[in-house]
Amino acid sequence: xxxxxxxxxxxxxxxxxxxxxxxxxxxxxxxxxxxxxxxxxxxxxxxxxxxxxxxxxxxxxxxxxxxxxxxxxxxxxxxxxxxxx
Length: 85
What we know:
Number of strands: 4
CATH class: Alpha Beta
Strand order of the largest sheet: 2-3-1-4
CATH topology: Alpha-Beta Plaits
CATH architecture: 2-Layer Sandwich
Structural class: alpha+beta
Radius of gyration: 13 Å
Shape: elongated
Helix content: 25-40%
Distance between the termini: 5 Å
């Protein structure tokens, strides 16, 4: 199986989406290397960074699920490093 390392950046403008995002991240927890969440109270948003090592289609599936949530933006940057497990 080929895996890639990627960084996913998530901006949450709708606080009601946080519970669903956490559920998705829990579902994909085996692939997540690390996670950092920053509440930006002055702007009433949350910023989340996810480092992930997974098959490209798995990363895209997670990004797609999160991106479909109302008031949530997500962008993913893939490394060129491909691992064969």
